[in-house]
Specification:
Shape: globular
CATH topology: Growth Hormone, Chain: A
Largest sheet: 2 strands, antiparallel
Strand content: under 5%
Strand order of the largest sheet: 1-2
Order of helices and strands: HHHEEHHHHHHHHHHHHHHHHHHHH
Number of domains: 1
Helix content: over 70%
Number of helices: 23
Radius of gyration: 24 Å
CATH superfamily: MFS general substrate transporter like domains
Number of strands: 2
Distance between the termini: 33 Å
Length: about 525
């Protein structure tokens, strides 16, 4: 079991790529040398009387919106491509292919040409999108059921570590006066790609994927490597047999398409797919990436001194609080953590908005209410802690385990694409929602909400509570095949009770309702026929 945990946990390293790229851009676009290369010289946004304000380099709102959000446009496409790539060449080779694409995008971002830099963000996004879908898929299919939530949660932890590393590197290079100020944070990402690609080269393919493709002998070998058992051992035979029986039950319905992901029926695929799509969208609508994309510039405009340091602090909170979260997933369960996490986040966001609107805004003479600023930062940190220990990791855990094997690749790619679609929308719209309007040739009219945007995030977190109660089942302690049975035989609200009954009865596809398994020779015959067909090919 330890070997299985280490193998499936390593794939979480893909989150470093995701987190570092997401976290670095917010600091990079605030660096003076980067602005000198890509920005505009003139009256900065917020200047009331054109020509009377201090002239400096700044990034027009349209360009800021584009360069931050365009990565998510690439990741949206990449997430959709993850299904055909993962189903055609496998989860393992798919991850290696994605890191190669990511590295090409990073190379383009080393350029001082605006078009090349933006194109690099798109290409890197393609790689990150594929990785963000295949990593939790690979982990869910390889991890032991007793710690699956913990293992998949490590992916979110790796994302938070990437965000923290990005803020540390940005803080270390921000005062450099040449292009190394922003090229170093960009170039560091080559190392993450090399480590992930090299590690996946040595890891086995997902046994469930191999069984899906009818490559039974390879699946047994991979399962044996994961469990440190001989490929012909009874334990490996039983595990592969249960997966095969569940797969045969799905395949009896015929070949699946994207339309099948939204069908009802006994398997309730439509409910599962919409749950995956919506939980990933809800994760983004908590507003967390507002802090990590625009936190530095937001804190600057809120009158907080040394915003780069505050960004590091928020990232440390994010990393530290993810640890208790992933440790609790398989103990407390998915539903209670999601509900209480949303309650705490909504409360903190409403309080941040109220404090910011009433006493937290800098006065006309520039005076800062320090107690109010400290309260604002404190509640932002509590909000981040609540997200990190609940919605951050659990959204990935849920989408990694609720889908049956036959549609898992397609449904997970659409769910992950939903994450990136909302990520793109929030990244693109935020400057228009939050920033002050600008004047002059590049002037742009904005909503200028400032700290009032937290009222919006508080409202969406309130919706997360109802969503979890009605649409997210409790699945802790169940194998992926048992999760499939749970959807077939239980309601969402009553899922926790039925889940415990399944565990007590040890109910699976080959051992249901507390009765005896089907006649063993018949099961063995099914598996042997699949093996012969694979070998003949």
């Amino acid at each position: 079991m330890v070997v299985t945990m280490l193998i499936s946990a390593f794939a979480a390293f893909g989150g470093i790529l995701f987190g570092f790229d997401t976290g670095s851009i917010g600091g990079i676009i605030g660096m003076e040398n980067w602005l000198e290369n890509f920005g505009t010289f003139g009256d900065a946004p917020g200047c009331v009387t054109p020509g009377t304000c201090e002239q400096r380099y700044y990034l027009p709102i349209a360009d800021e919106s584009l360069v931050v959000s365009i990565l998510s446009a690439g990741t949206f496409v990449g997430a959709l491509l993850a299904s055909p790539i993962g189903d055609r060449i496998g989860r393992r080779l798919g991850l290696m292919f994605a890191t190669s694409i990511f590295s090409i995008g990073i190379g383009l971002q080393m350029s001082t040409v605006w078009a090349a830099f933006v194109a690099g963000r798109v290409v890197a996004g393609l790689g990150v999108g594929i990785i963000s879908c295949l990593v939790p898929m690979y982990q869910s299919e390889c991890a032991p059921k007793s710690v699956r939530g913990f293992i998949v949660g490590l992916y979110q932890w790796a994302i938070t570590i990437g965000l923290l590393l990005a803020s540390i590197v940005n803080n270390a290079t921000k005062n450099r006066t040449n292009t190394s100020a922003w090229r170093i944070p960009v170039a560091v990402q080559f190392a993450w790609g090399i480590i992930l690609c090299g590690g996946m080269f040595m890891l086995p393919e997902s046994p469930r994927y191999l069984l899906l493709k009818g490559r039974d002998a390879e699946a047994r070998k991979a399962m044996g490597k994961l469990t440190k058992q001989d490929a012909d051992s009874p334990a490996v035979d039983q595990e592969c047999l249960d997966i095969s029986m569940a797969l045969e039950a799905e395949m009896a319905l015929g070949k699946t398409s994207y339309a099948d992901c939204f069908r009802g029926g006994e398997a309730r695929n439509g409910l599962r797919t919409w749950t995956g799509i919506l939980i990933q969208g809800m994760q983004q609508l908590t507003g967390i990436n507002f802090i990590f994309y625009y936190g530095t510039t937001f804190f600057q405009r809120s009158g907080i001194s040394n915003p780069f340091t505050i960004t590091i602090i928020t990232n440390v909170v994010n990393v530290a609080c993810t640890i208790p979260g992933i440790l609790m997933i398989d103990r407390a369960g998915r539903r209670p953590l999601l509900i209480w996490g949303a309650v705490v986040m909504a409360t903190c966001e409403f309080l941040v908005a109220i404090v910011g609107v009433t006493v937290g805004t800098p006065a006309a003479d520039g005076a800062i209410n320090l107690p109010a600023q400290r309260v604002l930062i404190a509640f932002v940190c509590i909000y981040i802690a609540a997200f990190a220990s609940t919605w951050g990791p659990i959204a990935w855990v849920v989408t990694g385990e609720i889908f049956p094997l036959a549609i898992r690749g397609k449904a997970m790619s659409m769910s992950t694409a939903s994450n990136w679609l909302w990520n793109f929308g929030i990244g693109f719209a935020t400057p228009y929602l939050v920033n002050p309007s600008s004047t002059g040739v590049n002037g742009t009219k904005t909503a200028n909400l400032g700290v009032k945007v937290f009222f919006l995030w508080g409202a969406t977190c309130t919706l997360c509570i109802a969503f979890t109660y009605f649409l997210v089942p409790e699945t802790k302690g169940l194998s992926l095949e048992q999760v499939d049975l749970l959807y077939r035989e239980s309601s969402i609200i009553g899922s926790n009770k039925y889940r415990q009954e399944m565990i007590d009865r040890d109910e699976t596809f080959i051992h249901r309702d507390g009765g005896l398994p089907q006649e063993k020779p018949i099961e063995t015959k099914h598996v042997e026929e699949r093996k012969e067909g694979s070998n003949n090919v």
